[in-house]
Amino acid sequence: MFKLRCIKCGREHSQKKIRYTCECNGLLEVAFDLDSIKVKKRDFQKRSPGVWRYREFLPVAEDSRIISLQEGGTPLYKAENLGKKIGIRELYIKNEGANPSGSFKDRGMTVGVTKALELEVKAVGCASTGNTSASLAAYAAKANLKCLVLLPAEKIALGKLAQAILHGATVVGIRGNFDAALKLITEASLKFNIYLLNSINPWRLEGQKTEAFEIAEQLSWEVPDKVVIPVGNCGNISAIWKGFKEFYDYGFVNSLPKLVGIQAEGAAPVVRAFKKGLDEVSPIANPDTIATAIRIGAPVNAPKALRAVRESKGIMEDVSDEEIISAQKLLARTEGIGVEPASAASVAGLIKLLNNGSIGKDERIVCVVTGHALKDPEMIFNKYEKPVEIEPTLAELEKIIKP
Ligand code: F0G
Question: What are the residue ranges of helices labelled H in 200-301?
Answer without folding.
Answer: 202-208, 210-218, 235-250, 269-276
